[in-house]
Amino acid sequence: MRITVFGATGRTGRLLVAAALEEGHHVTAYARTPGKLGIAHPDLSVVEGRLDDEEALTRAVRGADAVIEGVGSESEGTRRIVRAMAATGTRRLVAISTCSVPDPADLPDLRVRALARFVRTVAPRPWSEVRAAAGVVRASGLDWTLVRVARLADGPPTGQVRAGHYGHGAVGMSIRRADLAAFLLGQVTDRTYVGAAPAVSG
User: What distance, in Å, lies between the first and last C-alpha atoms of the chain?
Assistant: First the structure.
């Protein structure tokens, strides 16, 4: 498959790109600073651009079977990506989000509520942006999935990912980046959570 990755030079993004290439996908990595990617592969293409470069965004998603987006703290960037996907007929969008974004299927969870309240207090703009970006994804009309995480950890993959909704006792508060990358990649072909916002943990 042809997969476009936004946020490719981040710590999770680089793991995601490497995993997709290992599985035999062709990856287009969108990067403001391509040198930060640090990956060379015959099935890797890099499009250089910022999130306000609509021509570059359109070029990056044209012909893709799926887009994985990790720039949820910039809602206008998400809006432009969605617009580029709509213009090129690209349907599948998997977007990283956070526990600050609620879902109707969640039940009250004191840990999640405390963390979201803390983020809102110390980083009100990112808190607001990630919620706005989630709203853009939900209203996009695309085949979208919002993958919500509370805390990210480094370390080798465990191969264990729990997915569900907060407050039901099945999902914890932390996931390793490598496990998140594997879950995101799996959503490209898995239709279970199309139109849904699962929370994930290790």
Answer: 27
Question: Which among 157, 158, 148, 145 has a CA at the least distance from the CA of 189?
Answer: 145
The CA-CA-CA angle for residues 138, 144, 147, to 5°, reads 90
Half-sphere exposure of 49 (CA within 13 A, CB side): 21
Report field, pTM of the whole predicted structure over 0.70: yes
**In the chain, which ranges are E strands?**
2-6, 26-31, 44-48, 66-69, 92-98, 143-149, 151-153, 162-164, 174-176, 199-201
CA distance 10 to 4: 14
Question: What average pLDDT score do residues 36-63 get?
Answer: 96
Residue written as token pair 């651009």: 49
Measured CA to CA, the distance from residue 124 to residue 121 in angstroms comes to 6
Decide if 14 contacts 70 (C-beta within 8 A). no
